[in-house]
Specification:
Oligomer: heterodimer
Radius of gyration of chain A: 23 Å
Number of helices of chain B: 5
Strand order of the largest sheet of chain A: 1-2
Structural class of chain A: mainly alpha
Largest sheet of chain B: 4 strands, antiparallel
Helix content of chain B: 40-55%
Number of helices of chain A: 17
Strand content of chain B: 15-25%
């Protein structure tokens, strides 16, 4: 369609600004690495939360991409074939996450990450000595200035982690959970999750780009045949990783739907990312007409469906806890309704649901590429806030404390991850040119 | 139907061999300005909407209005029952609108219920269904529409319908067969 791609092999054109994008991402990654190193030295306690945030926020994109690719092979639909390659580029970034994940596991094992101190033991006692907090589970927390040295500028006023008293109250529960919540299981399971994700990512990415060369439909047959197994492995690993890495920040609290909420957010985020990316590629003329308004419209419907799904499960989780009103369950939301986190919580309702619901419900909105990209950007932003909202209230009871470190960690993991992802755009076609369903996808069309 | 029963023309039926021929013919009929006409095929054909010049459906607007109606109904119903008429404290939550979260499931369900009915009956209205009989079934050739043939029908109710001119228009679109379907006068 466009002059930039007249040879129609769907490779990046000569001198395309996409070709050098990975360098920008890598540069941001280096900046983030610097900030994170500074965090490690300056505020070792907050560092753990920052690192977890940066890692998990980017990990959700891998979750989303795995879900999308596996689901497309499960259903054998043709609507998403041309945009599937973008998700496969995301899969290609899995090694970066495996490295950051492995580092995280080692840091947790060696006691350099303090976010799980309440159940991992570690240096919890030292921390409690710094800030003594009288906190009824439901009452307002009253912090006493401690005599000891603080970890950061706000160390005294805004204690992180849990007080000794709170730990005492949780002691019975934690003892009961010890067969699951312990260091060695955390480490071994963590490695297994990383292996599953890297394995699945490489399997689905490599076979697809190999099919570009040989146009052999047997690749598709194999990928489809394995899809049910992959879906089960993916679902279990995502759920338990969410339990292990996020839910255990509040070890006495639990929610059985927690993994599903994380999944809903991840799925909405990957469709949002593909819309932003796909519309931008379409605009720059790199993919000709292979990604057009019909494909973006479908991605928009899926994004709409999944942020509604996220709202549905998030609200259900919250309402059951609100209705029962049991302190040990309410503590999770109590933390997110003080210290300025109220604003973030309300922002999530507005930007993760109400606003995009009303402003993206119509077909006219979804088929307007400019508007679709704006709405997808809103979802991407609020998804990053969503993960922030899950991780940080434990680390900074007052919202915004140590935010520079959090953004730095996000830049570090995201920068290196997307550097590898964008680098792959130079190596392969931008759509799966060997896929047997490609022809149908190119002529994809929506009826009224 | 007896031989001496009176008949009157109901519609023209043109038969085509391929979906491409059907779409091309549809564009001609559309450009000729006909309104009461339709395409018939054994399966959905991408791009036929544009070829026929069909406007976007109004069903979405009907659904949306019904959704808002359902939401309003639920809010008013809960307010009247639980806050105004018979306040009842359940689970220690105040019998007031501040117990909003517990009302959300009802609001959601009512919204979905009204939208479902609105969409179904809106669709039935827009498509003028159910309809027990249509003169198009008088044609024996039309049975192939569920098999391997494609048809365009132009009805006599169309303001532009003319026995000679409509036939010549259809014949100019390259059909494999054109027939005038008649129905019995009651």
């Amino acid at each position: 369609m466009s002059a930039a791609n007249s040879n129609n092999n769907y490779r990046l054109s000569e001198g395309s600004r996409w070709a050098g994008l990975w360098k920008v991402a890598a540069g941001l990654g280096v900046v983030g690495l610097g900030i994170t190193a500074w965090a490690f030295l300056a505020d070792p306690v907050h560092f753990g939360y920052s690192y977890l945030y940066g890692f998990f926020a980017i990990l959700t994109f891998l979750f989303g991409a795995l879900f999308l690719v596996i689901a497309e092979h499960l259903t054998a639909g043709h609507w998403g074939v041309t945009t599937r390659r973008l998700a496969e580029f995301i899969l290609a970034g899995a090694p970066v996450l495996a490295v950051f994940g492995a580092i995280y596991l080692v840091l947790a094992l060696t006691g350099k990450v303090h976010v799980y101190d309440e159940w991992m033991g570690g240096h919890h006692d030292d921390e409690a000595a710094h800030a003594v907090v009288e906190q009824g589970l439901f009452g307002a927390s009253v912090a006493h200035a401690s005599s000891g040295e603080s970890h950061g500028a706000h160390g005294d006023l805004y204690p992180r982690g849990h007080s000794a008293q709170e730990a005492e109250l949780h002691h019975h529960v934690l003892e009961h959970k010890a067969p699951y919540l312990n260091k060695s299981r955390f480490f071994i399971f963590g490695l297994v999750y990383l292996l599953i994700w890297v394995g699945l990512s490489f399997f689905y990415y490599r076979r697809s780009v190999k099919q570009d060369e040989d146009h052999d439909p047997s690749h598709t047959v194999k990928l489809r045949a394995f899809a049910p197994v992959a879906a089960i492995l993916f679902g279990l690993s995502l759920t338990f990783a969410a339990f292990d890495w996020l839910m255990s920040l509040e070890p006495a609290w639990y929610s059985t739907i927690f993994g599903v909420v994380i999944f809903g957010g991840s799925a909405a985020a990957i469709f949002a990312l593909l819309i932003v990316w796909g519309v931008s590629l379409h605009r720059s003329g790199e993919v000709g007409d292979a990604i057009n308004v019909e494909h973006i419209h479908d991605l928009g419907k899926m994004m709409f469906g999944f942020f509604c799904f996220w709202t549905y499960v998030s609200f259900s989780q919250w309402m059951l806890i609100w209705y029962a009103g049991i302190p040990e369950e309410a503590v999770f939301f109590h933390k997110r309704w003080q210290g300025g986190w109220q604003t973030v919580s309300v922002m999530m309702i507005l930007l993760h649901f109400a606003l995009p619901f009303l402003l993206f419900i119509s077909r006219i909105f979804k088929r307007n590429l400019v508007w679709a990209r704006i709405m997808a950007s809103v979802i991407l932003f609020i998804h990053l806030v969503d993960v922030y909202w899950y991780v940080l209230p434990n680390g900074s009871p007052v919202v915004g404390h140590g935010m520079l470190f959090d953004v730095g960690a996000l830049l570090m993991v995201g920068g290196f991850f997307f550097a590898l992802v964008f680098k792959k755009m130079n190596d392969h076609a931008l759509i799966p040119v060997g896929d047997p369903l490609l022809e149908r996808s190119l002529h994809h069309h929506q009826s009224y | 139907m007896s031989e001496n029963q009176q008949k009157r023309p109901a519609l023209y039926l043109a038969e085509y061999e391929s979906p491409e021929a059907l779409a091309k013919a549809a564009m001609k009929v559309r450009d000729a300005g006909y309104k009461n006409w339709d395409c018939h095929s054994p399966y959905p054909i991408h791009g036929l909407d544009e070829a026929m010049g069909l406007p976007p459906t109004k069903l979405g607007i009907i659904s949306f209005i019904c959704a808002m109606l359902g939401l309003t109904t639920a809010v008013l119903m809960i307010w009247y029952m639980n806050v105004y008429d018979y306040p009842l404290i359940v689970g220690g939550k105040p019998a007031a609108m501040s117990s909003f979260p517990s009302m959300v499931p009802i609001m959601f369900e009512c919204t979905i219920l009204f939208t479902g009915f609105g969409t179904l009956f809106g669709m039935l209205h827009l498509t003028r269904l159910p309809r027990h009989h249509h003169p198009i079934f008088e044609s024996d050739r039309f049975e192939a529409v569920t098999d391997d043939k494609f048809f365009i029908s132009i009805e006599v109710e169309d303001p532009k319908f003319d026995l000679d001119r409509t036939r010549s228009l259809l014949e100019s679109t390259g059909p494999s067969h054109v027939e005038l379907v008649e129905e019995a006068v009651a």
